[in-house]
Design goal:
The protein is of the alpha/beta class. About 40% of the residues lie in helices and about 20% in strands. It has three domains: about 5-85, Orthogonal Bundle (Arc Repressor Mutant, subunit A), CATH 1.10.10.10; about 95-165 and about 265-300, Periplasmic binding protein-like II (D-Maltodextrin-Binding Protein, domain 2); about 165-265, D-Maltodextrin-Binding Protein, domain 2 (3-Layer(aba) Sandwich). The chain has helices at about 5-15, 20-25, 30-40, 60-85, 100-115, 205-215, 225-235, 275-280, 280-300; strands at about 50, 55, 95, 120-125, 140-145, 160-170, 190-195, 220, 240-245, 255-260, 265-275.
């Protein structure tokens, strides 16, 4: 089997369509289709099937895509064995993070890395089901999910836990609830809320709180970027659910964070990567640094905010 054709099958699984694969690899869709057809010619079971207008992997195709990942990992390790004799790798390690993680971790990461390895940073705030696909474009993807959400597809990805952070309530320092050390769900009844857009993980938190309270939350604003939401909170216009660790730096200038009492609200922040990306030594060094700065951020967030 041609490793390049196996890689195309894997890309189809990760990106979801022939058109997306073609765009990412800067080739025509017909060229991708021809190579997949050539791969299929040597396999006695169907690897793909039409689903509406899209071409998707069959169960056999998924299994071969997983095997293709191991092929790429072995090739990366072979190249790494040669690369270890070079002074440095020319290509920077690419990292994407959702907004609040980038705000909390990118600066400390650059300081921690010092002179190397070089990194290329990007913000990518997507719906939860899109995070795994970002590993096709970035070496390391910082992603988040709620505790009850489906786990990441570990058959094709390496998942490294970064932190588990409590979800807390952000409110104006002058809000009546701000004087309390913690807030019960019932005390949140009739509040005006800021929520993320539908499909993003934290929308589920408000749904859960509404179920506990027995009343659907009144959502006045839909804002994904926590720093923007913080400005609305500081104006006293609404309250919001925010992550304690990655939003800790925002709890200033009239905004405070308070825990919710009686329920467990947490989100998992993980690093997703393809096995062949982790095979590169610079990627592993950056991942180690990420874990160190995340641990430091967790420790800092445990310091109580001013009341």
């Amino acid at each position: 089997m041609d490793p390049a054709r196996l890689r195309l099958l894997r890309e189809l699984g990760d990106r979801g369509s022939v058109a997306a694969v073609a765009t990412a690899l800067h080739v025509s869709a017909s060229a991708v289709s021809q190579q997949l057809t050539a791969l299929q010619a040597g396999i006695p079971v169907p690897l793909t099937v039409k689903q509406g207008r899209r071409l998707v992997l069959t169960e056999a195709g998924e299994a071969l895509a997983v095997a293709a990942a191991r092929v790429d990992e072995a090739l990366a390790e072979a190249l790494g064995a040669v690369g270890s004799f070079l002074d440095q790798e020319a290509r920077p390690v690419s990292i994407s993070a959702f907004h609040s993680a980038g705000l909390a971790l990118f600066g400390p990461l650059l300081i921690e890395l010092g002179d190397g390895p070089r990194v290329s940073l990007a913000d990518a705030d997507v719906a939860q089901e899109k995070f795994a696909g970002l590993t096709a474009d970035y070496d390391l993807v910082i992603a988040h999910r709620l505790a009850h959400d489906p786990e990441w597809p570990t058959t094709r990805l390496v998942v490294t836990p970064l932190l588990v952070e409590p979800l807390v309530i952000a409110l104006h320092a002058g809000h009546p609830l701000a004087v309390l050390p913690g807030i019960s769900p019932e005390q949140l009844r009739d509040e005006r809320w800021i929520s993320t857009h539908e499909g993003f993980p934290l929308t589920g938190v408000l749904d859960y709180l509404g179920a506990v309270i027995g009343q659907a939350p009144r959502v006045d604003h839909r804002i994904n970027e926590f720093s923007v939401a913080a400005e609305v909170v500081r104006a006293g216009a609404a309250i919001a659910v925010m992550p304690q660790t990655t939003a800790a730096s925002l709890a200033v200038d009239g905004m405070v964070l308070r825990p919710v009492i009686g329920v467990t609200l947490v989100r998992h922040v993980d690093v997703l990567a393809r096995p062949d990306a982790i095979a590169h030594a610079p990627v592993r060094r950056v991942l180690k640094a990420l874990r160190e700065v995340a641990a430091a951020a967790t420790q800092r967030s445990k310091t109580p905010s001013p009341r």
